[in-house]
Amino acid sequence: MTNETYKILIVDDEEPNRKLLSRCLTCDQYTLYSAENGIKALELAKTISPDLVLLDVSMPMMDGYEVCRALKADEATKKIPVIFVTAMQKIADEAEGFEAGAVDYITKPINATVVQARVRAHLSLKGAQDAADDWNSNLKKRLLQSVATIREKTQALVSAEERASGLHGYLLAVELMSGAFEMMENLHGVHARAVSELAGDAARKMNLGAEAVAKIRLAGLMHDVGTLGGIRGVSVKPETDMSANELGKFHNHTALGQELFKSFEELHDVGEMVMFHHEAFDGSGFPDGLKGDGIPLGARLVAIADFIEKAASSVSGEHAEYALMKARLHAGTLLDPSLISFFSSITRILYFEGKKSGTTGEVEVPPNELISGMQLSRDLSNEAGVLLLQKGDTLDAAGILLIRRTSRMSGSSEGGVWVMITCAE
Length: 425
Known about the structure:
Elements: E1 6-11, H1 15-24, E2 30-35, H2 38-48, E3 52-56, H3 64-73, E4 82-86, H4 91-100, E5 104-107, H5 112-157, H6 160-164, H7 167-182, H8 187-205, H9 210-222, H10 232-235, H11 244-259, H12 268-275, H13 297-313, H14 319-329, H15 344-351, E6 360-365, E7 380-381, E8 387-389, H16 397-410, E9 417-422
Parallel strand pairs: 1-2, 1-3, 3-4, 4-5
Antiparallel strand pairs: 6-9, 7-8
Helix pairs in contact: 2-3, 5-8, 5-15, 7-9, 8-9, 8-13, 9-12, 9-13, 11-12, 12-13, 13-14, 14-15
């Protein structure tokens, strides 16, 4: 919890219950509001935009389920977490509450410690979600800015002869597709556009020519189009967590994506970029196990862009420097080491601005994201307080295995490992 003040709305038709909850939550961090019925609660929620609602179920006029459904149906209030506070303890009651949109249940008679812990936990989760929403919103704004910049620089590469040949119209078609992805109000749309701009700008810096830049941008936009047929949720899982059936479908998405381009002869090379963007530089990728320069250049660029975007989105701070560091650590294995440097400036533009070379920071990394070569920025202990690894230690395979095993034994999915980040050229 931070020093921020949070607004909590308490809704209960019985005044003693409202007062009891208020006493449990009396502190400088909380500004408390109360409502004695559902109608007033809905009015207050729109007026004050609370960070959390504690809601009784059994009330006259509107019961808690109806109030919760109304909150979730309104664009202005749908993201406010709702915790039911009720004496109802049947499984069916809880199921109905979660179906209505509640995030948790507190049963009566209430325990002050439980109330405080649940409130803190859900305010923390909401804070993290709000931060992620803000970050994605800012990313979309930066994407629009970078699209305009890349478009101008790409157009400058187009000669009069190329314009006459129809390339200008081709570039406009790419912009049209980019605009379509901008309309997708979800993480898939943001991811696709980010990959497109990262790969496209890297291609421009390599002076590959306007047509090549445009095609690589298009491949970046369409690289995961094969997941849109029903396996999009699977594609965000780590491959180690996929079932055999899910893994098979995921590995097939590149071929599905390439199918879209087979009837357009002039776009066959774009289809190949989509087909082979999961190939690894050391030959360990899929679908064909291609290696090194045997992987099309555009596919190698899209692969780095895809890797950087996923890495940047997996942490809550130091997005650009963490993604670039992780890409460098995978140079020569997953990624082409000769191409990574072309992504530095565009990555910093999209994910972080104003970072000076040589400065250091730290970032919290989930255990399943750790890779050899990362350096710890804090001591690491287990739940019993036993020191496992020290600040400054460089992680190797054994250290990562120890961390993951300890995490599994603790049974906690929260928190990660703090590693050092250095802004390199």
